[in-house]
Amino acid sequence: MAKIKLTKNELKSQRDALKRFQRYLPTLQLKKQQLQMEMRKLDLEIFNKRQEEQLERDQLASWVRLYSEKIDLSEYVSISRLKTSRGNIAGVNIPILDDLEFNEKTPDLFETDPWMDEGVRVLKQLMRLRVERQVMEEQHRLLGEELRTTTQRVNLFEKVKIPEAKENIRVIRIFMGDQQTAAVARSKIAKGKSA
Predict the structure, then answer these.
(1) Domain residues for 88?
(2) CB-CB neighbours of 54 under 10 Å
(3) Mean pLDDT value of segment 24-53
(4) Which of 96, 161, 167, 193 could form a disulfide with 87 if both were Cys (CB 3.0 to 4.6 A apart)?
């Protein structure tokens, strides 16, 4: 604990600080709750995206043997444009996926295998799911950082600043009370000597 002055001005300063801490603490606690709620919601959404991605892979597994020879599907589908914007959750700027566009090239029906169309469709779907999941994971990371900072601030206020201000007020009041008692005693002694 830092050395404090034992004066009326310091007492007022400590009382003002205590009021300020007690006024901001509920706001920080509310922000913490909101961030925790958003994190839980994002956890569920990320889990669902992973499940969806796994479902597509499982459906692909039944006929993936048809691709025993190396085929580069990336020449038939690629991401041409990824458009994101910024959203705000509890004061945190997070990316939001607005649009995802693909460059698609139709496989030549005479030169490619008949299952190529389905392969391109599944690849496109997997790419979309992966990009959506990556954006959600970035949101989760940003919200997690803010949650950690907010939790640290709540703990600082609850466990350090408020108790410290209360203790400082108590010490100053005891000192000032002792000073007042000593002043009364000195005045009685001085009055007794003058009589």
Answers:
(1) 8-184
(2) 11
(3) 94
(4) 96
